[in-house]
Design brief:
This protein is an alpha+beta fold. It contains seven helices and ten strands. One of its GO terms (molecular function) is glutathione hydrolase activity.
Length: 260
């Protein structure tokens, strides 16, 4: 793990690598469509997974296309399990996101505790633009599963061209390298919706050497996407009138979108 609070840790080299085409090609060569490998094949770094479960995500878009994508968390379920006596608000335990030498021996110091330092987080509130114009607001909750959730919703929406609703409700996979297990969804929501990965997909993954484990909901995603709903020829309409906003709240958390 080579990331940490940029006010305390020089992460410029890591960020440069993330955006480097040559490095991306090197990572791509590690991917083998016919089989999977142990974690050490992909990285020699000792990894420390974050655990957080008390998160909510909110997207807001107004008629002028001002956008907010906000993720808030108290870290664990019920946070520090301490509430303010004056407000009743639960206190977070965000300090738990730091790495500790005593419990994570051998991990780099980038995420060790220091005064005024911010811990690493899985949160990825996102606003997606094209040519400076708003396309979508996207984010999620669910601890370490947030990252794989947001990536899969993005791929389904923008690469596979599923509708916003399909992109959010489709079954998702999660792998965090350690443990070397691929989690797939197989469960029923509070509203009675069955979310499960198709058997042919699971058999394909098994044939590639993956160890599979069924899981209850992974990450929870919220999405607002702007799409063209009126012909471009309608010059008498404003840009906002030619484009529609579609908001989806993940049924895994029994929420719903609201419009005013």
């Amino acid at each position: 793990m080579r990331l940490g609070d940029p006010d305390f840790v020089d992460i410029s080299n890591v960020l440069s690598l993330m955006l480097n085409v040559t490095y991306a090609a090197k990572l791509q060569k590690l991917i083998n469509d016919s089989r999977t490998f142990p974690p050490a094949y992909y990285t020699a770094d000792r990894l420390n997974q974050l655990e957080d479960h008390g998160t909510s995500h909110l997207n807001i878009v107004d008629q002028e296309r001002n956008v907010i994508s906000m993720t808030s968390t108290i870290n664990y379920a019920f946070g520090a399990k301490v509430a303010s006596k004056s407000t009743g608000i639960l206190m977070n335990n965000e300090m738990g996101d730091f790495s500790l030498p005593s419990t994570n021996p051998g991990t780099p110091m980038m995420n060790f505790i220091q005064p005024h330092k911010r811990p690493l987080s899985s949160m990825v509130p996102s606003i997606i633009l094209k040519d400076g114009q708003f396309l979508a607001a996207l984010g999620g909750s669910g601890g370490i599963k947030i990252i794989t959730t947001v990536i899969q919703v993005f791929i389904d929406s923008f690469w596979k061209n599923y509708s916003p609703l399909e992109s959010v409700v489709r079954p998702r996979l999660h792998h965090q390298l350690i443990p070397n297990v691929l989690n797939y969804e197989n469960w029923t929501t509070v509203g009675g919706e069955l979310i499960d990965e198709p058997n042919d997909v699971l058999e394909y993954l098994k044939s590639r050497g993956h160890s599979l484990a069924a899981s209850s909901p992974g990450g929870i995603s919220q999405l607002i996407k702007q799409t063209l709903c009126k012909p471009e020829a309608s010059f008498h309409l404003s840009k906002q009138e030619r484009f529609c906003l579609t908001a989806v709240s993940d049924l895994r958390k029994d929420g719903f979108p609201a419009a005013y």
